[in-house]
Every structure is written in C-alpha cells, then in structure tokens.
Amino acid sequence: MRLALTIAGSDSGGGAGIQADLKTFSAHGVFGMSVITSVTAQNTKAVIGVEDVSPEMVYLQIKAVFEDLPPDAVKIGMVSSESIIRSVARGLDEFGPEKVVLDPVMISKSGHALLKPNAVEALKKELLPRCLVVTPNIPEAEALSGMSIKGVEDMKRAAERIMSYGCRAVVVKGGHLEGDALDVFFNGREFRELKSEKICTRNTHGTGCTFSSAVAANLALGYDLFTSVRLAKEYITVAIKNSLNIGGGVGPVHHFYELYRRSGLNV
Ligand SMILES: Nc1ncnc2c1ncn2[C@@H]1O[C@H](COP(=O)(O)OP(=O)(O)OP(=O)(O)O)[C@@H](O)[C@H]1O
Ligand SMILES: Cc1ncc(CO)c(N)n1
Known about the structure:
This protein is α/β, with parallel strands linked by helices. It has a domain at about 5-130 and about 205-265: 3-Layer(aba) Sandwich (UDP-N-acetylmuramoyl-L-alanine:D-glutamate ligase). The protein is about 40% helix and about 20% strand. It contains nine helices and nine strands. It has helices spanning about 15-25, 55-70, 80-95, 120-125, 140-145, 150-165, 205-220, 225-240, 255-265, and strands at about 5-10, 30-40, 45-50, 75, 100, 135, 170, 180-185, 190-195. It has a nine-stranded mixed beta sheet, with helices on both faces. α2 runs parallel beside α3 (about 80-95), α5 (about 140-145) packs across α6 and α7 crosses α8. The longest helix has 17 residues, at about 225-240. It is globular. 4-amino-5-hydroxymethyl-2-methylpyrimidine binds near residues 8, 40, 42, 114 and 208. The site of adenosine-5'-triphosphate has 22 residues, from β8, α7 and α8.
C-alpha cells in the first residue's frame, strides 16, 4: 500500500482542505494521513471562522506520522501563519520527504483570506525551496512572482520567477482565466501546456486542493512528475464534470473512482 500525507486546513463543509485531500487519496487507492494546521468553519457559501492549531501541535502531528508511517508523498495546503510555516519547514527538514507538493493556498473561493498577508514571504523562503512542485492559481502566482498575469505567456514568465525561489517545478493553473482551462507546467528546462475545455459550472469548490492531492497521490504511486501532473489534470476534469449541486453557494467537486476510471478521458 502506498501512503500519502496532507498537511492542510480542515473544511467543515467537506469540499476543500483536508477532506478533499483524503477523498482524493482514497479515490487513487492510496492510504491517506493528515496533519491539521487550522480548523475552518466553512460551507459552500462562506468561511465564518478560522482557528489555527498551535505550531507545536502541527510539528507533533508531523513527527507522529513520519516516525511510524513514512509517506511516499506529501501535499501541503493551507498553512495560515508564519509560525505554522516554520513548524512545517522544521518537520520537512527533520524527516526529509522527497516528494512534496505545495498548493500555496491564499484565499478561499468565497473570498476569505486563508494565509495571513505577512506570511507570503515565509511561504516563499521556507517552503518553496523544500518542495518538488508548487501549484499556484493565477492570483497566487501573481502574489509569488510579483507580476500580473493576463495570458499564457505571462503564466510562463511567472513560472520562471517562482522557480527562482528554489522549487524544482511549477504548475501555474489557469482556471481563473477566460477561455480553456489551461495550466502551464515548467521544470526549469521545458514548458508543457495541459489543456481541457472549461466546464460551465459554478460548483468548483475544492478544485485546487483536489488537483494538488491528485499530483501527490500519483507521485506516491510511483509516476514521474509530469505524468503525475497530467493524470491529476484528468482527475480534476472528471471531478468537476461530476461536481455536486449541493449547498447554496459554490458546490464541491465529486470524488468517485469509478467515474474516473470509466471516463476514458485523455487530456
Ligand atoms: N470550470 C473549469 N473547467 C475545467 N477545468 C477547470 C475549471 N476550473 C478550474 N479548472 C481546472 O482545475 C484545476 C484547479 O484550478 P483552479 O485555478 O480552479 O485552482 P484553485 O483556484 O487553486 O482552486 P481553489 O479555489 O479550490 O483553491 C486546474 O487544472 C484548472 O485548469
Ligand atoms: C481549509 C481550506 N483549504 C483550502 C481551501 C481552498 O480554497 C479552502 N477553501 N479551505
């Protein structure tokens, strides 16, 4: 059995965060484990409360997992504050996982800040150099690169800038731009574009969390980095196609292995 760990925030509504990550791991046949960084009171409409777990407790969860159940891949999502980022960096240094996927979560779909603005620098300095791949959406790529992004050429320039912080690859996700759902992969040598048709739905809660956990699940299964990203793009496309019209706001994507396997989709 392959093992994957998510270090992220809890979404009580079940659509994003830890809950989306564990559902994604299960759908890939990977055993999922979790380090909870923050508890959010959240549904499809809003985030109505956030309470961070103490930095020491974040570190202890990492220690407990690695000392007994060393994961084949790690995904990092919401990390909230500078002190939590430092605890995660400490854990990564101590236990040295090779395959780390960082989803630099900053703002929820409902517009709530999930990373303190003064923690962006810590994220860049402490976590980017310790990860294999980082998966920003357009606003996150703008914040990390310090440039505005209007189209695919800008996505490539931003990816180059983000690489300079020391990660080994970047996927800039284009879900927030007009037109096709086009993502740009860059590994420091070559750019590759991953494209699917934009699915017309408002139910996209958890797309970013699901995509990055699918990358981690595929890495845990032993696929190379680009194949892991390509398969994750297929998975998220199917999960959005089957997204659920539940709740009064932005509904969640759906994780269902049979849907994925039978779709025969090739992105
Ligand atoms: N409507 C859509 N149709 C098809 N693919 C989409 C759609 N919206 C997003 N995607 C794809 O989903 C993946 C996640 O991208 P997105 O930009 O939505 O992430 P995100 O903004 O980080 O998500 P979140 O708000 O959950 O953090 C990318 O591969 C993107 O291209
Ligand atoms: C806990 C959590 N993590 C990530 C996201 C993605 O935006 C969210 N809405 N909530």
